[in-house]
Amino acid sequence: MKRLILLAIFSGILVFAAPHSFAQPSHVSATTIPTDRLIQPADLPPLLAPGSTEKPPVVLQVGSRIFYTEAHIRGSIYAGAGSQPSGLALLQKTVASVPKDKFIVLYCGCCPWNRCPNIAPAFDRLRTLGYTNVKVLYIPNNFGDDWVSKGYPTDK
Amino acid sequence: MGHAVPIPRRVGRMLSIALLPALMLLTLPAIAQGPASMVDKPAPPFVRTDLHDHPVDLTSYRGQVVLLNFWATWCAPCQIEIPQFVRWQSAYGAQGLQILGVSMEDDSAPALALTRRRHVNYPVLMGDAKLGRLYGGVLGLPVTFLIDRQGKIAAVYKGQTDLSVMEREIRRLLSAGGQ
Fold first, then answer.
1. CB atoms A24 and B76 under 8 Å
2. What is the pLDDT of residues B109-145, one digit of tens each?
3. For residue A15, pLDDT beyond 50
4. Which of B32, B158, B160 is facing A148, going by the closest CB pair?
């Protein structure tokens, strides 16, 4: 009898919890990205400067299109939200003509780093596609605070 | 009439280098200062339609305390706040609290589905870059503005926030009375 009651309670929990867990945005945490693949905001502007001795990277925004329209890293390209299948398809299309060893920088900045749903799936997709020189811009809080407010090169 | 004193070229160059950052700061638009720069300023008016095609005119809420929340379905901290906002709308609505949600996603379908699932009891409208810029540059979520009964922005909360702090401020603004 005790077992039956426990089973009923467990089933009840499953029935109630399942829809709510599906309702939560599922995401791979940005903390899964290896630290040697990160680039700090202060280190990127020199690479984008017109007189830079290095070849500038391809910079891709993989978050919200609204945020991209509002403000984005100068010269960056919108490549789809990494958390959405349609976003990953756009990312794949965007890099289709980019050589596999090209220096690519991904960024999002929609949410605090460990809550960003977009950046890790986008990074994983490029790695799966065989891109070998991909870095991710480390944005601890959000794009506004960690890039725009600091006066780094921005297009609006 | 005084005579202009010639400034040596080297000094002039040094001065311009020293003054350039100050000039850049002065000319930076509001977006570079972020939403926090909006505190104590009148809330920028806007008129939109909500997810159910009802008009939402911010100025029509003058005399009420407005909680204006920018959010998205993919934003995990936003999901924590929404059930609390639903409770606050029920608990404080009669005292003059009006919550307005602004979804910052590209498509309205996920926002509509979530508001139905969560029984959201306040208007939710779709945001865009223009509305984000109007509020100082909404470039990260969640962001919540508390607007007092006179239509002035009293507080801004960015990122994951201690909701008990926000609730205390709501109560304070509500107790400030009518117009």
1. yes
2. 999 999 999 999 999 999 999 999 999 999 999 999 9
3. no
4. B32
CATH architecture of B31-175: 3-Layer(aba) Sandwich (3.40)
Confidence of residue A87 (pLDDT cuts 50, 70, 90): very high
Closest CA to B140 of A136, A105, A69, A111: A111
Of B81, B47, B82, the closest CA to residue B61 belongs to B47
CB-based contacts of B58, cutoff 8 Å, min separation 6: B43, B44, B45, B46, B47, B66, B68, B100
Q: Which residues pair with B144 in a beta bridge?
A: B69, B157
Residue type, B106: D
pLDDT digits (tens, 9 = 90+) for B81-107: 999 999 999 999 999 999 999 999 888
Q: Is the complex ipTM more than 0.95?
A: no
Angle among Cα B146, A141, B47 to the nearest 5 degrees reads 35
Instruction: Could you please state the CATH topology (level 3) that the domain comprising A26-155 is classified under.
Output: Oxidized Rhodanese; domain 1 (3.40.250)
The structure's pTM equals 0.79
Question: Which chain B residue has the Cα nearest residue A110?
Answer: B140
User: Which of helix, strand or coil describes residue B102?
Assistant: strand
Residues 6+ apart with CB under 8 A from B95: B174
List residues bridging with B143 in a β-sheet.
Answer: B70, B158
Enumerate the residues of chain B whose CB falls inside 8 A of the CB of residue A154.
32
What size, in residues, is chain B?
Answer: 179
Q: Does the distance separating the beta carbons of B32 and A66 come in below 8 Å?
A: no
Domain ranges in chain A? 26-155
Give residue A49's identity as a one-letter amino acid code: A
Domain ranges of chain B: 31-175
